[in-house]
Protein backbone atom coordinates (compact mmCIF):
# COMPACT_ATOMS: atom_id res chain seq x y z
CA UNK A 1 0.00 0.00 0.00
CA UNK A 2 1.42 3.39 -0.97
CA UNK A 3 1.08 6.52 1.05
CA UNK A 4 0.52 10.03 -0.20
CA UNK A 5 2.78 12.58 1.42
CA UNK A 6 1.40 16.11 1.43
CA UNK A 7 4.10 18.76 1.45
CA UNK A 8 3.50 21.97 3.40
CA UNK A 9 2.45 25.05 1.48
CA UNK A 10 5.27 27.50 0.92
CA UNK A 11 3.33 30.23 -0.87
CA UNK A 12 -0.04 31.16 -2.19
CA UNK A 13 -3.31 32.06 -0.52
CA UNK A 14 -3.62 31.08 3.12
CA UNK A 15 -0.09 29.69 3.28
CA UNK A 16 0.42 31.44 6.61
CA UNK A 17 3.73 32.90 5.49
CA UNK A 18 2.57 36.45 4.88
CA UNK A 19 2.49 36.56 1.08
CA UNK A 20 4.40 39.20 -0.84
CA UNK A 21 5.15 42.53 0.82
CA UNK A 22 6.78 45.48 -0.92
CA UNK A 23 9.64 47.54 0.48
CA UNK A 24 9.41 50.99 -1.12
CA UNK A 25 11.97 53.79 -0.91
CA UNK A 26 10.74 57.33 -1.54
CA UNK A 27 12.51 60.33 -2.97
CA UNK A 28 13.69 63.00 -0.54
CA UNK A 29 15.84 66.11 -0.44
CA UNK A 30 18.53 64.87 1.94
CA UNK A 31 19.89 61.57 0.54
CA UNK A 32 22.40 61.61 -2.30
CA UNK A 33 22.45 59.20 -5.23
CA UNK A 34 25.68 57.74 -3.80
CA UNK A 35 24.08 57.27 -0.39
CA UNK A 36 20.94 55.61 -1.72
CA UNK A 37 22.86 53.33 -4.11
CA UNK A 38 25.38 52.19 -1.51
CA UNK A 39 22.70 51.65 1.15
CA UNK A 40 20.61 49.50 -1.20
CA UNK A 41 23.67 47.49 -2.25
CA UNK A 42 24.63 46.98 1.38
CA UNK A 43 21.29 45.78 2.72
CA UNK A 44 19.22 44.30 -0.11
CA UNK A 45 20.39 40.91 -1.44
CA UNK A 46 21.08 40.85 -5.16
CA UNK A 47 21.44 44.62 -5.56
CA UNK A 48 24.87 45.66 -6.75
CA UNK A 49 26.20 49.20 -6.56
CA UNK A 50 25.35 49.69 -10.25
CA UNK A 51 21.87 48.34 -9.61
CA UNK A 52 21.58 50.68 -6.66
CA UNK A 53 22.34 53.64 -8.93
CA UNK A 54 19.64 52.51 -11.39
CA UNK A 55 17.12 52.28 -8.57
CA UNK A 56 18.24 55.65 -7.14
CA UNK A 57 17.60 57.18 -10.57
CA UNK A 58 14.14 55.59 -10.68
CA UNK A 59 13.40 56.98 -7.21
CA UNK A 60 14.53 60.42 -8.36
CA UNK A 61 12.51 60.30 -11.59
CA UNK A 62 9.27 58.76 -10.30
CA UNK A 63 9.26 59.63 -6.60
CA UNK A 64 9.66 56.07 -5.33
CA UNK A 65 10.72 52.53 -6.20
CA UNK A 66 10.00 49.04 -4.98
CA UNK A 67 13.41 47.78 -3.87
CA UNK A 68 12.40 44.34 -2.56
CA UNK A 69 9.32 42.14 -2.46
CA UNK A 70 8.73 38.95 -0.51
CA UNK A 71 7.65 37.48 2.79
CA UNK A 72 6.52 39.86 5.51
CA UNK A 73 9.24 39.02 8.03
CA UNK A 74 12.07 39.72 5.60
CA UNK A 75 10.28 42.80 4.26
CA UNK A 76 10.08 44.17 7.80
CA UNK A 77 13.77 43.41 8.33
CA UNK A 78 14.93 45.14 5.14
CA UNK A 79 12.53 48.05 5.71
CA UNK A 80 13.99 48.61 9.19
CA UNK A 81 17.57 48.43 7.96
CA UNK A 82 16.95 50.97 5.20
CA UNK A 83 15.01 53.29 7.52
CA UNK A 84 17.76 53.08 10.17
CA UNK A 85 20.30 53.95 7.45
CA UNK A 86 18.36 57.16 6.80
CA UNK A 87 16.40 56.39 3.64
CA UNK A 88 12.87 57.74 3.36
CA UNK A 89 10.54 54.76 3.43
CA UNK A 90 6.91 54.29 2.43
CA UNK A 91 4.87 52.10 4.77
CA UNK A 92 5.18 48.39 4.00
CA UNK A 93 2.65 47.45 1.36
CA UNK A 94 1.05 44.07 0.79
CA UNK A 95 1.24 43.07 -2.86
Q: How many alpha or pi helices? A: 3
N-to-C terminal Cα separation, in Å? Answer: 43 Å
What overall geometry do the principal axes of the alpha carbons give?
globular
Structural category: alpha+beta
Number of strands: 4
Q: Indicate the mean pLDDT.
A: 87
- The value of Rg in angstroms is 17 Å
User: Percent range for helical residues?
Assistant: 40-55%
| SSE topology string | EHHEHEE
Strand content: 15-25%
**Unreliable residue runs:** 6-16
Describe the largest sheet: 4 strands, antiparallel
Descriptive key words:
95 residues, globular, alpha+beta
Outline the fold blueprint.
Layout: E1 21-26, H1 33-43, H2 49-62, E2 64-70, H3 72-84, E3 88-89, E4 93-94
Antiparallel strand pairs: 1-2, 1-3, 1-4
Helix pairs in contact: 1-2
Report on the architecture of this protein:
This protein is of the alpha+beta class and 95 residues long. The protein is 40% helix and 18% strand. It has helices spanning 33-43, 49-62, 72-84, and strands spanning 21-26, 64-70, 88-89, 93-94. Strands 1, 2, 3 and 4 form a four-stranded antiparallel beta sheet that branches. The chain starts with 20 loop residues before the first strand and ends with a strand.
